[in-house]
Fold these 2 entries.
Entry 1:
Amino acid sequence: MKRWLLVFMLACFSTAHASFYARNLSENGYGWSNFDLKQLSCEVEAFGLFYETTITFQLALAPWSYSEIPPGTYEITWDFDLIEGAVITDCWIKAYGATAFQNAEIVDLSSAERRYQQQPASKPRLLLRHRWYRNWNGEVQKRFQMNFSPVTVTQAPTIKIRYLSPCLPYYNTRRIIVPLQEFSTYVQSSTPMLQVWDHDNPSVQPITLAGVGYNWEKSGDFWRTNTQTSKTVLGLAPESASRSYLRTCLKEDATFYQLAVLPPVDKTRQQPRNIMLAIDLTNQQANYLDLVKTFKEAVRLSLIDTDSISLIYSSFSPIQADAAFAPYTAPRLDQLFIGPQNQSPPILNTLPQLLRQAVDFFNEAQRGGEIWLLSDANRHCDPLATAMEIIQQTHGGAARPLVFRVISADRNYQFRQTINAQVYYGNDYLYENLARASWGTFVRLREAVSYEFLDIMLDAIAPTVNTVEIDPAPQGGLTHSRFRLNQGRVNFPVTMPYYEMGVYDGAAPFDVHFYGSFQGSLFARTVAIDRQSADPGWEAVVTYWYDRYIQNRLLEPQSYETITYIENTSVSRRLLTPYSGFIVPGAEGLLAFMRLEEGAESAVEVQQPPPAEAPKEHNLMAFPNPFNASTTLSITLPDFDDTRPVLIRVVNYMGQIVYEYQMHASARSSLRVVWDGLDQAGRPAGSGTYLVQVQAGSFRKNAKISLLR
């Protein structure tokens, strides 16, 4: 019985720690699952809306109290996850006793797995790959898997991994998540170190929102703190004081951009509103004051000078803070909140009476307006007739149109109902229908943590531009291959910027055409945003753009052409995808497919004698690159025998000629040739990487181009 109990306890505990497993490479095939985390450090560099994380760790085998580690050489398998949208870009291994890290090379997955298995287990080896799993309900889940060796009882390598990810944008902050829980083990003989360098705000200390890390100290460019192996959430200052900016990066003859723009709402043209603030908190005894203060801050950010406000709150009975609506001012708001801030948290819930009294207040003033309700009431949908009666007495009893904006602070899951196959908790059914009937809003704090409350409240009450679409227009060009960076958000409070990245032709500044609906009317504004004068042109935008593009290609039917394109792009851009892998040792020969690099030898053999002398002037450029429909080749020719024609070829990754044409040109002249993306038969060429070859006598020049369909 004791043995079975021990196994059960170990199984329960193991779910709370990282998924490490060691396999003995000798013939006995023993496995081991207890480890000592001897080293863990995390370095974060934030630039714009992206941050790059480098994690270094050393894992040693640790004995159980009841058994010893079988001798031999082990291979460790680490099954792990990072955060949504993470792009692994580098990996290293340092053998025990070595002084330097060995950088992993990225190759196609078949080559990576073959070379890993062929490497002797006694030498340093590492394989990192992207995996897809199906969980218990059939949903696909993205994870990563790393294998490395050799590991013995006394010796273990040090591993370093680097990934790129987007910050989570919120009001007046950028959120960074550091998944240190993926390194949690039963034994930890070292204290993890966390370092952060915010390139946009190097002097501003990060804020620890979740996890451990409160005693921050400045060390050079980095802020440093001790932490633990738990999920850590950090808050960084906004990347721009204006929250609206344009950043660009020129990479291989293509120009990428990152754009942020606040909804260009002119507050002076907003319609004046009559707003009743309503607070009904009776179950949040410990968090009552924090909720009231957060609600007050959300209200302050959401009001404009032309609004008129009043307040009602629950005590033993509903209390009206003022006898009439009055114009909003900061002192006026402070005065209204004196009552709810200074009282003891009430015990008696007065939601139905509070709402009826608020509606009566509007009727007596002969006004319409909005009711902003913060409530944790949860028993007014049992029976459902109670909810219907409250809706009838409030929304149905208003003499003039009223809009209900409800923030539910109820965090209790005990009371629930299933209505039309939909599960509703607490008062959710009441609030949802009250908001729907009045064209209002309804949000829940139930599944959020405290540092998210302000942003959720702003989603409910701040003026919002709905169903947002933007069209950035560079000077003399256009944008294409665009990706949003707002986690699916389409409705934007005026406090929340819209983020986008993509490729563009033309020049700054951009004219940003912003469309949507605002206060029930169609909304259209155009704002000009110029490139920042000190814009460093973060290459992270380019890396993340390629990863997003590959993720979209993975959703397509997986033809041979698609797979090969993903392999090519993954390797050339050092991106970990399901068709690529990081591998140590590095290559000792050709990869499984030919990589076409600018200046590399041609994939099609052209018999030409070696040049008598190096060309004096020559150049070959393609713009745009990457391109969607057509690209223009700019060719500057050196001295050559101009009695022979200039040969221009477009070659695919297999060395096959896609298109070829000839023309006569004089020496030291410039040519402009447009390739329309069609092959010799006039059919559209597929997406992928191509090599442009130019021959003019003894002169040869290659350039890589990317076609994106």
Entry 2:
Amino acid sequence: MRTCLLAFAMLGAILSLQAQSPDWSFGVNPLPVMESWYDFMPGGYNQLPVQIQAASVAGDNGVYIVCHAQLTVTSVRNIYLAYVWPNGDVEVFFAGMEDTRGGYPAMDIDPVTQDPLFVWHSDIDNDNDLETLAQYDRWHEYNQPGELSCAREILPPDGSETNGHWPGFFTGHAPSYNTDGKRRAYVFNRDYEGTGWPLNTMLYLGFADYDTADLEFCLIDDLDWLDWSYQPISQFEEWAADSLVVKVDFCEALARDSVLAISGYLHTIDDSLEDIDIPDLFVLWNDNYGEGEWELFITNSEQWFGNPDDHFFMAPYNSNHMSSSFDTESRLHMPLNFGFHVWSEGNIMLYSWFSYMRDVVFNHSDGTFAINNLWPQTEDGSPYMPGDEWGNPGIHYWPIYWYEWDESFHENSFKIASDPERSLLCAVWSDGTKARKWHHDDDPDYAEWENTPEIAVSVSSDNGDTWSEPILLNANETPELAGMIPCYVYPGDRIEYLGDGIGRVHLFFLDDHSYGSFARNGNGANMGGTLRYMALDIDFGNVSAGAELLPPPALSLGNHPNPFNPETTLAFSLPSAGKVELTIYNIRGERVRSILGGYRPAGRHSVTWGGDDDDGRPVASGVYFARLTSVGRTITRKLLLLK
């Protein structure tokens, strides 16, 4: 395990003027999906339960939604799969296990068949240890939803029990995809030890390769025939043994080109200034399909400000229900809530009313972190902070739908989605600023917001370098949401590009029938709620301080240095995601080395060639040609190796 302690890279002077809220309209008005008496986090914690099928494979691209719900006041919470047809029809299918409580699902779409595969946790043997179960729907066989496999438990290799809290799930191309068409399914299995602080967190990764024939095996009665490999993520073992680390909050992301990333922040003992200086903002990076070692990148999250004697800083807090996503430049984005802290005489005070949304950006190419404003923003792009003078501390903001601070650990939710072929990003959260102004400040101007949270949607058209003012949707000002109490909002896994700068953002949320989660903490009345789906069509061409929508990069190939000895870096750009082949030929047209092949996302990529052939033998000095084939085109570049 390599550990890199990184300098904190701040992006400044980006905005030339204040960004505005983009133009938008309802692409799909709010539709009821199903009723539920369980009114808390219906789509899970750290992933996106809404997956959009690719029209190029599935025909009309429908929308799959996986959730947990409770059908009656006395029934058990269980797992359901919904499908939204392009015409707006909604079908819902039971996907759990009869009479067995299940929850917190995670889902991904198979990139070849467009079948949804999903996992969740349940105590199927009533021993108070949670198991991780897997299931999927056979869209590719029937061209319709509802042909579900049986739910099967996924176990560690030795058959031992682990607590499978809140599993994560992804599927993408396997290393052998180009030769046998196999894909790889990834399951992240959390295991927690203890009930208080410290709360030791262990994380296990399981992966298995499969092909389309496997999805038709034995009437799809189980997933046991897959050869699952399991391994602990050793960095979590190190943190569990560290007396300064009391909790780890994190989320996972997958780039289709074999990269897995785990990002988040550490809670550390913070009763002295020395402890504050412990690096806490991290990314664990694996670029080998989950195999082998994970590289740790870590830095300090604190943003200090004020006079030299003032111990004022902004840092993440109560951001444990977030997701992450890659942009077209392979940078990782993670939205977090940063709170205003004051360190004084060995104690830290949190002023929760000063909470501001940030976009944490990690760039693996140079190993740096950056933190961009999501909301509020500044005119020059510098980090938004409360005022330097304590008597004028800055504006109040509360990006959590429930107004009380003591519930914010459970009620926060920050999610992000991207367009895999363009520079579009979308951050979504449930906002309670106006409700808190009434409940916390007793401000009579906000009496009508007593039970009215908002959905906040902020977008970017430049890979998150700048963000728009959020679109705010609520029952008081949005006629389509009249009478609703929207909370726990999730975007679709990708922004669907409609052309002319318009991107469709798919949204799933709970319309609670009483403000506050009764199921989680007894807030509000025990009335349940309605799970709903809707879609916004947003003009991305008029966001991010007037920035124009960036087109996908053109297909290109270059290398540096040239001539070279002993190695050269081949850099290429893809206008869209797809299969890529990069091969080296000699001057006689004979293949020398297959550099790479397989699926790659749109954007810029690079790989190094060290002057060797497919058998690892060094080649002679002379002229060689690098040939890149993708998106139906081929580009060739001449290379000169001098020894």
